[in-house]
Amino acid sequence: MIPRFEDARLLPVLEKVQTERRLSFDDGLLLYQTPDILGVGYLANLVRERMHGDLTYFNVNRHINPTDVCTASCRLCAFGKKAKDPNGYTMSLEEVWHRAGEGYTEAVSEFHIVGGLHPELTLDWYCEMIRGLKERYPQVHLKAFTMVEISYFSKRMKISNREVLERLMAAGIDSQPGGGAEIFSERIRRVICDHKIDGGEWLEIARESHKLGLKSNCTMLYGHIETEADRVDHLIKLRELQDETGGFQTFIPLAFHPANTAMSHLPTTTGFDDIRNIAVSRLMLDNIPHIKAYWVMMSEAIAQIAQRFGANDIDGTVVEEKIYHDAGATTSQNLRRGDLLRLIREAGRQPFERDTLYRPVVRTETAFTILT
Ligand code: V47
């Protein structure tokens, strides 16, 4: 069947998609600029169904943010607090270990652990935290620390990124989340996160991590002051690294939430933009297996629709979310497994509970088994 595109410029892109040829920078720009969102969605859905059929992946997970105290002052962020700020918090090790076991009714298969760049906590403290979690929850996969945190530990401890990664792996981390990538354009980074590592360093640490055998995710923060060309450039840089390492599992486009940040004058993204970022990333990132529509960030409703526009993952139960809620998110902080099943089924997709490495999980409420 030949689809009817409103924008005939999409026909050469269709040809490439059908013959599984790589899309160019200009194709990416066109996909961002065309008003034909249904055409873009049709193309992304072709790829999504070719790769994953009707499956939509989800997991039962819990986010843990041990501290929001952060030495950086990124304009994009509402989460980080200065050490002197009475509203900041830092958990004790006991608290982290205790918190990890709270607040869910089903056994979680993943802890997602990220935090501020704390001026005093040492790498040894983090290693002890990880070892303690592993001891208490041996079945739970630890997806922990962004490339930004790795770089910070390395500078503070005056050791290489590689050594930091090796020490954290020895302590028990199993993979890394995708945060902190923001947008690689230095022009934009200088404004939104000038205290953070540059894009080149983020990519270099991801390369190092993949070489050591860790899988990681990757993200792109959109909807602030970046241009469409900056977005395409970001996606292509991720695609190039993935050609080299194959270490990225999942890409998550993250919409900027301006409330309580130094850029609170900016408008929030629209549903159109959120859906388009899902679709364009599915089309451009031909070598990254999964595209996640993170429901906390984009709302349950849009994350569900995204399952027909290129996404094949919806993230997890989350339990307690701080980064987006500090920035004004009005979504719930947690969903039950049953809520995710309903969202997925009503999108006409087949739910597939996965562990962090996308292996099938079978479960009762209190226990689960990973099928290998
Ligand atoms: O790194 C911070 C972004 C990220 C704001 O790997 C903001 O599975 C919007 O990376 N508005 C954290 N975004 C979230 C993240 C993530 C989420 C879910 C799953 C995974 C995964 C990763 O959120 C930060 C930053 O890029 N962020 N502040 C804000 N005001």
Tell me about this structure.
With 372 residues, this protein is an alpha/beta fold. The protein has one domain: TIM Barrel, CATH 3.20.20. Helices cover 41% and strands 14% of the residues. It is built from 15 helices and twelve strands. The protein has helices at residues 11-18, 25-33, 37-52, 93-100, 123-136, 147-157, 161-171, 186-192, 199-211, 228-245, 271-284, 295-298, 300-306, 323-326, 337-346; strands spanning 55-59, 61-64, 110-113, 141-144, 175-176, 215-222, 248-255, 290-291, 313-316, 350-353, 361-363, 368-370. A four-stranded parallel β-sheet has the order 5-6-7-8. Strands 9-1-10 form a three-stranded parallel β-sheet, covered by helices on one side. Helix 5 (123-136) links the parallel strand 3 and strand 4 (141-144). Helix 2 (25-33) packs across helix 10 (228-245), helix 6 (147-157) packs across helix 9 (199-211) and helix 11 (271-284) runs parallel beside helix 13 (300-306). The longest helix is centred in the middle third of the chain and has 18 residues, at 228-245. It is globular, with a radius of gyration of 20 Å. The mean pLDDT is 96. Residues 76-79, 177-180, 182, 217, 219, 221, 252, 254, 256-257, 261, 294, 315, 323, 327 line the site of ligand V47.
